[in-house]
Amino acid sequence: SVPLYSIITLNNEQVVYVVNDHTVHARPVKTGIQEGWRIEITDGLDAGDHVIGIGHRSVSDGQTVNVIRTVSNMEELAN
């Protein structure tokens, strides 16, 4: 699952942005069950993919980025 707010709708398609080797990639996803602020991804992501959760509305597919913080659970964002 991913934070609900990390999903963007582009051209009637749900998309998340992932970072691989400092490059942003748009990934179409299919969603499942929502629980609180998390939503299940049923297709489109692989285990270990790094989804952009903050700043994702300011990037585009193919852009080079510098990851400044990585979190593994929502509670870390409160700190």
Topology:
Elements: E1 2-3, E2 8-10, E3 13-20, E4 23-28, E5 30-35, E6 38-43, E7 50-51
Antiparallel strand pairs: 1-6, 2-3, 3-4, 3-7, 5-6
Describe the 3D structure.
This protein is mainly β. The chain is 0% helix and 42% strand. It has no helices and seven strands. The strands form two sheets. Strands 2, 3, 4 and 7 form a four-stranded antiparallel β-sheet that branches. The protein has a three-stranded antiparallel β-sheet with strand order 1-6-5, with no helix packed on it. Strand 3 and strand 4 form a beta hairpin. The chain starts with a strand and ends in a 28-residue tail after the last strand.
Short recap of the structure:
By secondary structure, this protein is mainly β.
Largest sheet: 4 strands, antiparallel
- The structural class is mainly beta
Strand content: 35-45%
Count of DSSP-assigned helices = 0
In angstroms, what separates the terminal alpha carbons?
21 Å
Q: How many strand elements?
A: 7
Q: Report the average pLDDT across residues.
A: 90
**N-to-C order of helices and strands:** EEEEEEE
Query: Approximately how much helix is present in the residues?
Result: under 10%
Gyration radius, rounded: 12 Å
Q: What sort of overall outline do the alpha carbons produce when their principal axes are compared?
A: globular
Uncertain segments: none
